[in-house]
Amino acid sequence: MALLNATIQQQVREALAGMERPVKLLMFTQGANGVVECAFCAETRALLEEVAALSDKLALEVRDFVADAPLAELHRIDKIPAVAVLGDGPQPKDYGIRLYGIPSGYEFGTLIEDILMVSRGEAELQPQTMDALKRLDAPVHIQVFVTPTCPYCPRAVLLAHKLALASDWITADMVEATEFPHLANKYEVYGVPRTVINETIHIEGAVPEATLVAQLMAARDKPMAQR
Amino acid sequence: MDLEFALEAQDRQDVGGDRQYDVVVIGGGPAGATAALYAARANLKTLVIDKGLTAGALGLTAKIANYPGVPGEISGAELVARMRRQAESFGATFVQAKVQAVDLEGEVKTIYTNEATYTARAVVIATGAMGRGQRVPGEDRLLGRGVSYCATCDAAFFQGQEVAVVGNDDEAVEEALFLTKFARRVHFVSPTPDVKASQHLREALAQHPAVVLHAGAALREVLGRDRVEAIRIAPRGQPEQVVPVSGAFIYLQGNKPITDFLQGQLPTSETGCLVVDREFRTALPGVFAVGDVLCNHVKQAVVAAAEGAIAAMVAEKELRGRKQLAVDWAK
Ligand SMILES: Cc1cc2nc3c(=O)[nH]c(=O)nc-3n(C[C@H](O)[C@H](O)[C@H](O)COP(=O)(O)OP(=O)(O)OC[C@H]3O[C@@H](n4cnc5c(N)ncnc54)[C@H](O)[C@@H]3O)c2cc1C
Known about the structure:
Chain A is an alpha/beta fold.
């Protein structure tokens, strides 16, 4: 059974019609024989297949987290289901945009926005933000914890993803908290969205761009914990 | 987990297309509805975002008899509804949604709601003064550690646990019922002896086996070291009580200007109201504020409406790059 009904398919098709450059979704899932337990891997894969079929500018590559471990490591992907939204075509590029857990509910819109953004190759951030990002000189890891029923969450995720697109130093993950309870525990997530920058800075709620960037620049001065 | 995939209620700033307005009015009480009426009549593409007809001061007033031109008694909700219809008749659009956040700097302003994202060249803030004032002790400290303002977002973290919902309107009851799908027990703490929500919601709440109702009880404190461990409540005429819970979901109203969605982007007075000049401009270009959200010494529907009219005319002047106000009766 299709996950997306005809109406949604049509909406997504129309949205993706605005794509400029080609985009590739690189998905990591469990092996055929289920070596690693993964609650929503099959559904995530089915969803991405349906979405990828809606635009000829959108490609999907599905890899096995165990068998293709070197590739996963190259992209620094450490859990599944994982989706990296990559620039494709003659000059492919990994911007560091990641979605961990199935992009369902409100986060489905985030996936589509991510695709469009990467396709544009333009983050549309404030000029002050772009200036600040130029001062980065070390890796920054942003994790945004979400649930699919959280209307405020896509804004926090998209902002983090925009920053990842704009700066090669930044990797930004959406993490669906209920699928990764050990991480929700580790980072003491009891409310979403919760943004964790470099393991050291925790931000509650969806904050404006300027606030997040200020925190991000502050994180720069704190040591980066082990990923 | 139910899997749902919809683009409808999403943040789709660039996808939908038709989410760009000349003027977005936040709040559709007398101040906002009148601003919309004037803006729309001046042929500006105008949107009003309001979270509910009966959520504002006028909307929940049972009877009003002193609004000029409307003799006799009329319910506040009916008066607001008439103002909105009049604004719509000039082309204004109304949507029901709660504004969560805004980006007001720059020429194009962005308005984020729980339904969609809109952009505007001018924004009129008319959210009134039914906002919650002081937080109770422990609330700020434990935010994100069990204190939450969004059960639909955070319920999943309280699987099989005991939680409290504090409030008495539709939103509070709906969130409490949503929580019953996850939590083992939901303590519903209503500050008033009767829950003010619509009847079907009140009934659903009263009949739910997992809900314990604490009617007429004030929330005094949220307790806990690193996480919420309990709430302290004061039921009317009874000694205070400590209810052990791991989550406290708070939906209270009050009498403070509603400015939380601004996240500090505009200066407020000591009493928390927005500060404007004579023509209702705030410190940011293209952003206006009118009605009870200001420190008005007279809080009356007719005053709020008049302010809305002035702000809309000033906004129109600025958007069209004119030096003088256009007289509305000139057309
Ligand atoms: C009990 C009572 C009786 C009154 N009686 C009278 C009277 O007899 N005569 C008289 O002239 N005045 C009376 N007033 C005062 C009058 O109601 C107010 O001065 C007037 O309503 C203020 O208008 P406003 O548009 O600024 O705010 P409101 O009427 O409060 O409207 C604000 C609107 O903003 C919306 N809103 C708030 N936050 C958000 C958000 N985040 N997102 C989207 N929408 C939002 C609300 O839903 C609401 O509709 C009375 C007030 C009260 C409380």
